[in-house]
Design brief:
heterodimer, A: mainly alpha, two-stranded antiparallel ribbon, B: alpha+beta, six-stranded mixed sheet, about 30% helix
């Protein structure tokens, strides 16, 4: 829940609002995030090609009978969230909100996605609409 | 376990032994290994998928198809582990021949992927490998059921 606080003596322009705060337990030794592992594997061209093929297979499985979403377009292009976020100059956590339909994008990001994913602007706009509709 | 807005979001991390299992699988069956890697990578960002991973006998009949089972029965008769496995059902003959074995920490809301095992050995808890899985489980301090 968003939380707002006003310090004594402050005016209303100095309202501190905490929109979201998530504290994860530290990752124990001998464990790693899967994104980190995949990023390492993708440094090997053979592994990177296998992962890209797997994403295309997943896009065919996961989105065959549903409306095209941004996630489907990304997988069809053989890209991970991490990789696409980097190509856009965003953090993965920020990009994931776009894919989840929780965040709007700037026109410049739209144009970059159009180029990276190699889809028409119409298809991309529809995928973004579908992602937002899934969220709502 | 059902996700609600009052809980921290689910997270997922992978043990170095499971990493090594996958690395070995890349040498045997590259497509199966990549399918498992991609499933885990995508699941990590999908709270709905993560939510399904602790629902015994859950079968995702939509696409992609996968099923989930609790594998808490072990040779330690009086102790039940919060231990699960998922089988990817698409592409029969590839990834479906393997089981992703993981534990769930209910306080941290975190999945710990402990191993990727061939179907035949995923349920034999008297062998050395599976004993190690239980040892890692205990090190994590995950409550027994």
């Amino acid at each position: 829940m968003p939380y707002s606080a006003v310090l004594p003596g402050s005016n209303t322009a100095n309202v501190l609002t905490i929109v979201d705060c998530v504290a994860f337990a530290p990752v124990p030794k001998n464990f790693r995030d899967i994104a980190e592992i995949i990023a390492e594997r993708e440094e090997n061209p053979k592994r990177a090609a296998a992962l890209a093929r797997a994403r295309v297979r997943l896009s065919k499985q996961a989105y065959a009978d549903t409306k095209t979403t941004l996630a489907a377009l990304r997988l069809r292009a053989g890209l991970s969230q991490e990789r696409l976020a980097k190509m856009l100059g965003n953090s993965q956590s920020s990009y994931s909100l776009v894919e989840a339909g929780k965040r709007e994008i700037m026109l410049s990001t739209f144009e970059k996605l159009h180029e990276i994913l190699k889809v028409s602007r119409d298809e991309l706009a529809e995928a973004l609409r579908n992602s937002r509709a899934n969220h709502s | 376990m059902r996700y609600s807005s009052g809980q921290p979001p689910y997270s997922l991390v992978v043990h170095e032994d499971a990493e090594a299992d996958l690395e070995a699988l890349y040498e045997l069956d590259e497509d199966a290994a990549a399918d498992i890697d991609v499933f885990l990578d995508e699941a990590r960002f999908n709270q709905d998928t993560l939510d399904h991973l602790t629902r015994h006998n859950y079968v995702h009949y939509g696409e992609p198809e996968y099923d989930v089972k609790e594998i808490a029965k072990t040779k330690r008769a009086s102790v039940k582990f919060n231990l699960w496995r998922v089988r990817l059902l698409w592409l029969g003959g590839h990834a479906s021949e393997y089981r992703i074995v993981y534990a769930f920490h209910p306080i941290q809301n975190r999945y710990y992927v402990l191993a990727i095992l061939p179907r035949k050995t995923a349920y034999e808890f008297n062998n050395e490998r599976n004993q190690k899985i239980l040892a890692v489980y205990d090190e994590l301090g995950i409550p027994h059921l």
